[in-house]
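Take a minute with the sequence and fold tokens given here and flag any structure token that looks odd. Thanks in advance.
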Amino acid sequence: MSAPADSAASAASPAFSVVICAYTEDRWEDILAAVSSVRAQSRPALETLLVVDHNEALRERLLKEYAQGEDREQGAGREHGAGREVRVLANAGPRGLSAGRNTGIAASRGEVVAFLDDDAVAERDWLRHFAEGYADPAVVAVGGRTVPVWASGRRPDWFPEEFDWVVGCTYRGLPPGRVRVRNVLGGNASFRREAFAAAGGFATGIGRDGDRRPLGGEETELCIRLSRARPGAVLLIDDRAVIHHRVPGPREHFAYFRTRTYAEGLSKALVARSVGAQKGLESERRYATRVLPAGVVRGLRDAVLARPGGAGRAGAIVAGVLSAAGGYVLGSVRARRSGVAFSPAPVGEGAHG
């Protein structure tokens, strides 16, 4: 990647590449909406990269959607204009979100790489708020706030806000404002390019693989590695950088809640195996000992006051904790028996083709 002509201006206002990973045509309209939200930013992105996870039919369809002129012939999938360039890429690694993100990082050209879920739309000032965080050269990552958009039109009465991470959203217990954190949340996050040079990319083998494995934790593992590689690094969440994340109907049911919390336990076992339990579970201990007990008390109080769903929310918190704990125990045993270890994937300096 060529050095910017005015490095001071670049540091104050870095160029953003936005990576959106997609895997299924079932989300076609969501993918188009996600791209449109990036192209409508008040602070334009340099480019949007759509990384398709081993789905040639979807990749071809997206190439046709965004290809124009000579780019159509070359299969580069570009559409030009300020903040309007769209490139469609195939995941160059194994199936899964981590490898897809690494593909996007390697192909991107911006000083900062931002990630947006394929079933989410960003508010107009999303990138502007991210950029403000990077005015401090010590900041290497900035995340935002993710708001659920329930398919039914409203939050299920029984669904506790403390567990909104189950549906990929910001949960009760995270501090408000612009605050320093251990890790950002991957579906609404950004990193300086130098972060990947220092720590490597996302570790494959951790994280989601389409709908087949509702795992997570890949961004936590990366952020912990990054903080170790760069001890003075600052990671922030700015709750003004908002995206709206669609929650499909099946994910509003308790069966998915139970499956996802169990899978999170498995994921945390993998993260702890990779970076150690002390850092891998540092935030989770505070969450489990402070945020969740307060949530149970709140739910029981609502039940006493005859408010809808109070008992259900209290019960869901307890069930979620037990399910996650069960997944963590089993995942830890499996990891020890298999001797599995994860290495950060190397990422390139950028591909301009």
